[in-house]
């Protein structure tokens, strides 16, 4: 017979075995307790306990009783103590929280383990909080495992995860999200912004807000601007000011003030808005240039602002994004010269003219003759039950009189 000692000090049998009688398992031990097999190296009365629980920890006595003898006055049992070890388990996990900027937040992470030497670590977005420079002076991990951030800032929003372990089994973890709210604020104020004359343009108000932005007020030359009563001006969802058709009267000094449910942190600095005319091409390249391999091609392009007061920036680029071969390419103003033409120079080129308010593009094609044929494109396949039909568009043949032949394999 084996029994344990309950909290009141009473002996509670957990397993009773009498030869030729059915065995008895105590409450809570059904299906988990049995004698060892006869060929076990342990004694025949040894006990096998499975599916160990925390409540199984304690003292156990193996006691032999003879039914045909008077009970002994002295104890004849052997005592054993069972220590139950188990990995850490989170009993009180952290929960999602919303705080105002400047307040204190505390996340719980209460864990239980056997033995109880639990180590708790906290991570923000996967990075250990002690290694997050922005949190270093504001974060505390308490002895009970909870995390305190005091005071919270707008950039502290994110996922926080606690990880617990006592060295047994895999670490356990639980996560919660911190949402930090703050009044809407302007994050950046450009001193000068430009609008394109007679085109659509935008004056940006760079805003950060949580909860989301509700509305923005604007001033022009220190007077409140009422865009809903002003033709050609609309406040966009992000708070910026859209001018559907810019004129000279839109030039001036502007400020913006954003608001959300928490209010505002103030207005932007003054932004000088200047109206500029977009560039126009005065010289455009030919629509097509045809040259032979090894020859040189010069393509012309020039632009100016509409009133001719300033020169826009002019650059050449390949339409497919591949780089120009600088060792064979020379630029002179808006003109470009490519020497020693090769098969790879074949393609479309763009002349790009830009100023502060607009970018304009014109394109030309360069055909390099006397080369191998170019690969076909727009290749498609149409399959039926018994056949496949292939179709494509031919690439450049390599010369005006060259005939292309195709091999399919």
Q: Secondary-structure map with pairings?
A:
Layout: E1 2-5, E2 11-16, E3 24-25, E4 33-35, E5 47-49, E6 58-62, E7 78-82, E8 86-92, E9 97-100, E10 105-107, E11 110-114, E12 119-124, E13 127-128, E14 139-141, E15 147-149, E16 158-165, E17 172-188, E18 192-196, E19 201-203, E20 206-210, E21 215-220, E22 223-225, E23 233-235, E24 241-243, E25 252-259, E26 271-276, E27 279-283, E28 288-292, E29 297-299, E30 302-305, E31 313-318, E32 329-332, E33 335-338, E34 347-354, E35 359-369, E36 377-383, E37 388-393
Parallel strand pairs: 9-17, 18-26, 28-35
Antiparallel strand pairs: 1-2, 1-6, 2-3, 4-5, 6-7, 8-11, 10-15, 12-13, 12-16, 14-15, 16-17, 17-20, 19-24, 21-22, 21-25, 23-24, 25-26, 27-30, 29-33, 31-34, 32-33, 34-35, 36-37
Oligomeric state: single chain
Reported CATH architecture of the largest domain: Sandwich
CATH superfamily of the largest domain: Immunoglobulins
**Overall average pLDDT:** 88
Which structural class should the secondary elements be placed in? Answer: mainly beta
Number of domains: 5
CATH class category name of the largest domain: Mainly Beta
Q: Give the number of helices.
A: 0
Rg from Cα: 41 Å
CATH-defined fold name of the largest domain: Immunoglobulin-like
Count of extended strands? 37
Overall geometry comes to elongated
**SS strand fraction:** over 45%
**Biggest pleated-sheet summary:** 6 strands, mixed
How widely separated are the two ends? 84 Å
- Share of helix, binned: under 10%
GO molecular function: cell-cell adhesion mediator activity
Organism: Timema bartmani
Protein name: Ig-like domain-containing protein
Keywords: Immunoglobulin domain
